[in-house]
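hi!! sorry for the late reply, been swamped w classes. u asked for the two structures so here they r. pasted raw, havent cleaned anything up. first the sequence of the first protein and right below it the tokens
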Amino acid sequence: MADHTPHTSQETAAAALPTITVDDVRAAHKMLSGVSRATPLEGSRYLSGLVGGPVHLKCENLQRTGSFKIRGAYVRIAGLSPEEREKGVVAASAGNHAQGVALAASLLDVHSTVFMPVGAPLPKVSATRDYGAEVRLHGHVVDETLAAAEEYARNTGAVFIHPFDHHDIIAGQGTVGLEILEQCPEVRTIVVGIGGGGLAAGIALAVKTLRPDVQVIGVQAAGAACYPPSLAAGRPVAVDGLSTMADGIKVGRPGDVPFGIIEDLVDDVRTVSEDELSSALLLCLERAKMVVEPAGASPVAALLSDPKSFHGPVVAVLSGGNVDPLLLQRILRHGMAAAGRYLSLRLRLTDRPGALANLLGILSVVDANVLDIGHVRTDPRLGLTEVEVELHLETKGPEHCVEVSAALRDAGYLFTE
């Protein structure tokens, strides 16, 4: 990042961090040949129209294990000595990193133990086991899970595989940047989600070294944005009270190694709201036919929030597609509401035959699709002959929502949204 005040107190620590170069990324790219996939670059006509220039999606959601994590995990484990491999590796993760480490270790014939939170989605736990890891469920928050993994490493000698704060991890993730330059040599802007910073740092290092004219823009969820205050302070700063559906970028403190790279090379870090994440995920599903998790949709959310601020051709990195089906159902409903395509209403009817049929008839005339109806008859706030009805409606957009509401008011119904 440009124009940040130097932080003298950090110079000694920064000097001790390993130096990563584009040659490390190139070496990682060779190592990953036949291991990771060169994921496709797909054009998006809709986003291109918004931005006013070509927009492409880098589909890491189609990567092995469903995210970019296999790249860094494989490079990190492949770099271990025979003695270290013999003792195995351990990781802590609620999802993508767990699966990346599990598969990488299996491919390299290294035993892996992965600690996951007790409440981790069952599909992610099952997938991690299927990739060959020994899964241990511990703790209800990631910090507790991480502490358990680190204690296991101390007690057994297993090598702890950090999800983002290691030069081999960053070199592996940087191979995404090399692929982008090869697939879209005319690219002017790359947009990538940021959690701890490993992917953004790797991409920025590779791209800025070879093409300093290309802008690299990072995106964080507003409810879990540790980089803006850290960049302002000139050092990694921990933030509390993280709250976002995008668990893949829900990180409370930047990694020391990626922070230095992002501070120097990433042009801007933006934040997006939960509504913008939901809308982006819905757009990826409907328009691009891509199943993307909220973290993976964050670059698209940034494009939707301020499309004219990006210079095309743009490449948005869809970093992962591992979303729990139950969460996906809630997110899609939230995304539909944020896009004005879902309307919830509460209203009171006289509890008599035909009252509900009359209401549904009005909704049919204005072409509102009823998804769900709930009745409440026993609330003490209701009159003796009243019933409260809760409606969940699918609409065609904000203008249709206004039309539906107006039709109900014209028919004499009083309601709350």
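now the second protein. again sequence first, tokens right under
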Amino acid sequence: MLAIIVTGHGEFARGILQSAEMIFGKAQNVTAVTLAANESVEDLVSHYRLAIDQLAPVTELLFLVDLWGGSPFNAASQLVAAHPDQYGLVAGLNLPMLIEALALQQQTLAEVIPHLERTARGGIRHLDLQTNTGDDDLL
């Protein structure tokens, strides 16, 4: 089973994981790792290592982070670089992406990552009542 670390700035990771579990149900082999304002990338790498130890045994691990280039991304990328065949990293975490990741945990990283990118993009929609176009077919 694919292990997942949900992470981001502040309490974002805990909040989005809690929201996903309200919709999806209790997640297995998933943990949230937070970054406090006074913590460094090195602190976060330590938090990730502890989380990985708690998720063990891990054959494949996916980091889902809030922002490309932020501290959670930078810390995760260090670990992914050390384990490129076992670890993956996707930035831009949103709720549809996380729910989909939970549903796909039986698949491999190679299968999951491209699917999550499509799902996350599909989760961005708009309601345009002026022109009656776009994603307003719900009305």
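hope this helps!! also noticed smth abt the second:
Residues 41-55 form the longest helix (15 residues).
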